[in-house]
Amino acid sequence: xxxxxxxxxxxxxxxxxxxxxxxxxxxxxxxxxxxxxxxxxxxxxxxxxxxxxxxxxxxxxxxxxxxxxxxxxxxxxxxxxxxxxxxxxxxxxxxxxxxxxxxxxxxxxxxxxxxxxxxxxxxxxxxxxxxxxxxxxxxxxxxxxxxxxxxxxxxxxxxxxxxxxxxxxxxxxxxxxxxxxxxxxxxxxxxxxxxxxxxxxxxxxxxxxxxxxxxxxxxxxxxxxxxxxxxx
Length: 232
Fold this sequence. Notes:
This protein has 232 residues and is mainly alpha-helical. The chain has helices at residues 9-28, 31-35, 40-47, 50-61, 67-79, 82-92, 94-103, 105-121, 123-127, 136-145, 150-175, 177-188, 190-210.
């Protein structure tokens, strides 16, 4: 019997970050209703949701938050774990893409589209990842797979995230008090809103499962013993 390959430290760290990313996203969803109308800037930093960014911009308009902090918190909430996605693409390359492709034909098509977009647009694909109709993570993983240096990826990612967050926060700033009022009502009925949101997430997950869509949050059975591509 062949010995079981040992999990390398780098593999454990990379796969652990990916698993944490998926679990953390789900775990912070219930925070949205309770914080969006009371502490939207904190919610931005914790969850990076669009609703939080709009509310934070509106709070800044009425003097209840600082505009620069609303933008900075949104950037942190959206981009903090992006280097982990780049790292996974860099370390596992096609093995990561093939894993998701085997489990989900739709993701396979999305990965192929991300690769075509990146091949055509290169660095601009990272900058405008929020506007491309494929999941951001596939763009970031492709950037790592193609050998883009980490410093360049981070710079491009922060630039693109700044553009996107500024747009969404600016929208909330333009709306002003009306957005504050809506966010406040949502938080006032936080318990009901949270239960409704959880039920919606569960229903959507069941619907995806019925359609045979994989719900794995990490690359799972990628063989860590296989030789990874050269590290940048």
